[in-house]
Amino acid sequence: MSQKGRAHEPFKLLEGDISYVNLTQLEPGEVAEVMKKAQGTRAIVFDLRGYPRGTMDLLAPYLNVKGAKIGARFEVPLVAGSSLVNGRAVLMQDLATADVPVYRGRTVTLIDAGAMSAAETMGLMLEATCGTTFVGSPTAGANGDMTYTTLPGGIWMSFTGMGTLHPDGSQLQRKGLTPHVAVRPTLAGLRAGRDEVLERALQVLKVPVKPAAAAGPATR
C-alpha cells in the first residue's frame, strides 16, 4: 500500500507480539527507541516498500546476529580517456558496528518495486545481518551512484556506471531483491483497504522455523 498521506508512525506493536517497523518513516533519531521497543518481541516486520531515511548504519548493529562484516559489493569501471584501465575496481561495503543489544527474533521484510537505490542497499544489509525473509514482489533493481551529464542540444541525462551486487557477487541490478514469498496486492484487496503483503508476512511468522538438520556421522 502507498505510504503517502499516512500519519508518522514508524513503530507499531501488532497482534501476536510482533513489531512493525516502517523503514520509509523511521528517522535516524528514532532508531534507538524503536529498537528498544522491538527488543522483547518475538518478531519484527520491516516495511521497505519505499525509500528509507538514512537509518541503515544505525540499524545494522542491532540486527547482526550473523556477525557479518560486509553488506554489499560495488564494482566501478576505471576509465582513462576513452579506455578502461584494469577493468573494474571492487569496493566492499563494511557493515557498521556499535555496542548495542542485538535483536535475535525472526525478521520479515516487505518489498515491492517502490524499493530502489538506498532501499535495496538496506535490503542487502538486512539479508547479510539477520537473513531476513523477503515477502512481496521484486524491488526495482536500480541501485548505484549516479553520473549526470548534458548532451548536445541541452538534453540532460543521468546514469550509473557502478555495479551493485550481493556480497557474494550475485546480481542485484536489473533483477532486484527477490522475495522468498511472492505476493502482490489485488484489486479486491485494495478496494477493501487491506494490506495483503503484510497479511501474508504475518502468516509466514505463524509457521514455526524448522530446525537445521543435524550433521550425520562421518563416512569414509
TrEMBL record:
A Pfam entry, by short name: Peptidase_S41
Record-annotated Tail specific protease domain positions: 17-183
Gene3D superfamilies: 2-enoyl-CoA Hydratase, Chain A, domain 1 (3.90.226.10)
InterPro entries: ClpP/crotonase-like_dom_sf (IPR029045), Tail-specific_protease (IPR005151)
Name this protein carries in UniProt: Tail specific protease domain-containing protein
Species: Pyxidicoccus parkwayensis
Upper lineage: Bacteria, Pseudomonadati, Myxococcota, Myxococcia, Myxococcales
